[in-house]
Amino acid sequence: MALITCKNLKLGYEGEVVVKDISFEINSGDYLCIIGDNGSGKTTLVKTILGLNKPIEGEVIFGEGLSRTDIGYLSQRTDIQKDFPATVSEIVLSGCLSHMKHRFFYSKEDKRMAMENMEKMGISNLAKTCFANLSGGQQQRTLLARALCSTGKIIFLDEPVSSLDPEATEEMYEIVNDLNKKDNITIVMISHDIRNVEKYASHVLSISDKSSYGTIEEFLEGEKKGVDDNG
Amino acid sequence: MAEIFSRLGYYFQFPFVRYALIVGVLISLCSALIGVPLVLKRFSYIGDGMSHVAFGALAIATVLKFSNNLPFILVVTTIISILLLKSGQKKKIGNDASIALISVGSLAVGYLLINLFSDKANVSGDVCSTLFGATSMLTLNSTDVYISLILSAVVIVVFILMYNRIFSVTFDENYSTATGLKTGIYNLVIAVITSVIIVLAMNLVGSLMISALVIIPALSAMRIFRSFKSVTICSVIVSVVCAVLGILVSILASTPVGSTIVAANLICYIIFFIVGKIKK
Ligand SMILES: Nc1ncnc2c1ncn2[C@@H]1O[C@H](COP(=O)(O)OP(=O)(O)O)[C@@H](O)[C@H]1O
Ligand SMILES: [Mg+2]
User: Fold this and answer.
1) Can you give the pLDDT at residue B139?
2) What is the mean predicted confidence (pLDDT) over A196-202?
3) Structural domain includes residue A151
4) Domain around B78
5) Does A3 map to a domain?
6) Is residue A172 part of a domain?
7) Band of pLDDT at residue A178, cut at 50, 70 and 90
8) Pairwise CB contact (< 8 Å): A71 & B178
9) A127 falls in which pLDDT band (50, 70, 90)?
10) Atom 27 (ligand 1): residue with closest C-alpha?
11) Which of the residues A69, A190, B1, B260 has an alpha carbon 20 to 30 A from that of A149?
12) Is the shortest distance between the CB of A39 and ligand 1 below 6 Å?
């Protein structure tokens, strides 16, 4: 049984279909990249898996005992308010809420975990800084540290590098790759950057009128064939 | 100075003055607490709408001649604020408009009802005091004070217990939902707390100025402080200090309580605004 199985998903808003016929599965340890044009429905798909949208048809099945509280998520940048008064450590700590059940306040263990994850992301010196005053890369690291407080199993990232400069982009890819390879965290990433998809992904889901899903090898094979056919 | 104190001492012999101060402190504390998430969630307009609904409910209660209006107004306002929140979650266009409709509608119907059915001579004076809180503050009876005491205590305890979750739902509702937090419940808690505070605050500043009491302390605090915790604490302090000053000034200078408190808050906002600019 896969970690997450998506069967014949048809997605959209208010009955209007954005994308259909999507079937794939995410297995533990995968590094899945979701690619596709702007507006093709990548964000919609991730939000559906996360339970933020309802599918028009089809289903999302969680396996291997995975529950919502085992998930970390880095949303597209626009989802967070610009001048919200919150410090890095307040935000990172809030990731611990998902496993607090009926406890009201953070425990020592929660605080230690937040500290560790801030160190891991190289932002522990910014703990008391306001989120709004950080650079794009530092903000993404903060949100990733929050995700790490929520889960050690699976993290969804929606275009995590779209607002970063080239240097910060490379760093972000390295960080995510380390999480996947060293900490064995399953990664599901929406990305535009084909070069880095080829470099890091283990599986690729391409969303379009004819969506396709397969391993990175199958994807590269298909790309090559497409090029050969055309020229 | 000594003269001021002796005059205050004279006034504080009367229980209704002491009641006014106690209730004023509690209500300003609670309204500042809930103001922070309301402002940050861009829900302030709901608070404004609710205050008019509370006025409509008060009118109905007056017509029905309840011995104590508070419970009835509380129930009606809470139910409507939950309904508004639910419809707001569907994000249909026209939610703003429906709130405007309900709020202006309650105001109009409320005024109409009071005019038609009131047997008191000075109807417009009555209405004026409910809208602007001119005298109602000094007509609190001990039941009102007890209800305010208990409800404020409940609001404060609930807010403190839920504080971390309220932060998460306010900062990033999608993340909270996606990671398994029951965001619906916390939004409900916020809606219920809001309506309770609005009904309580109607006694203090009158229904037209409640949203000022909820919003301004949070806005002031955000001018200077940059963490959720410090903003929350600062807005509570600002709100309580302004309420106490406002009540004392209104007693000494015989100004209307509500407007004096709101004026104190505005002055505070201006000071914080300037300090915030200088700090940058
Ligand atoms: N909340 C929404 N309501 C209605 N339509 C939406 C909403 N969000 C996105 N859409 C539409 O759904 C389509 C897919 O959007 P999205 O999933 O964000 O694309 P992508 O992430 O691939 O760029 C777009 O045409 C967009 O206009
Ligand atoms: Mg998108």
Assistant:
1) 63
2) 93
3) no
4) 2-279
5) yes
6) no
7) very high
8) yes
9) very high
10) A39
11) A190
12) yes
pLDDT of residue A183: 95
Q: Which residues of A touch B228 (CB under 8 A)?
A: 85-87, 90
Number of domains in chain A: 1
pLDDT for the residue numbered B86: 73
Over the stretch A43-80, which tens digit does the pLDDT of each residue have? 999 999 999 999 999 999 998 889 999 999 999 876 67
Ligand nearest to the CA of A44: 1
In the prediction, which pLDDT does B121 show? Answer: 57
Q: Which residues of chain B have pLDDT under 50?
A: none
Give Cα separations from A141 to A19, A146, A151, B142 (angstroms).
31, 9, 15, 54
Using a 6 Å cutoff on CB, does residue A211 contact ligand 1? no
Give the pLDDT of residue A145.
97
Q: Tokens 């020592």 identify what position?
A: A108
State pLDDT tens for residues A140-173: 999 999 999 999 999 999 999 988 899 999 999 9
CATH of the domain at A13: 3.40.50.300
Provide the Cα torsion B91, B93, B96, B97; round to 10°: -150
**Which residue matches tokens 């709130």?**
B99
What is the SS3 string spanning B85-130? HHHHHCCCCCHHHHHHHHHHHHHHHHHHHHHHHCCCCCHHHHHHHH
pLDDT single digits (tens) A71-118? 999 998 766 777 899 999 999 999 999 999 889 999 999 999 999 999
Q: What is the CATH number of the domain that holds B273?
A: 1.10.3470.10
* Interface touch A90/B227, C-beta < 8 Å: yes
Query: Would you call A103 an interface residue with chain B, using a CB distance cutoff of 8 Å?
Result: no
What average pLDDT does this structure show over A9-21? 90
pTM score of the predicted model = 0.90
Least CB-CB distance to A87: which of B161, B163, B227?
Answer: B227
CB proximity B120 to A under 8 Å: no
- Total number of domains in chain B: 1
Cβ proximity of B272 and B220 under 8 Å? yes
Residue nearest to atom 1 of ligand 1 (CA): A13
Domain that holds residue A25: 1-66+184-231
C-beta of A38 in contact with ligand 1 (< 6 A): yes
Q: What is the ipTM of this complex?
A: 0.93
CA separation for the pair B91, A217 (Å, rounded): 42
* Residue A30 within any structural domain of the chain: yes
B245 vs B271: CA distance, rounded Å: 16
DSSP letters of A86-154? -BHHHHHHHGGGGG-TT--S--HHHHHHHHHHHHHTT-GGGTTSBGGGS-HHHHHHHHHHHHHHH-SSE
Cα separation of A41 and B96, whole Å?
A: 28
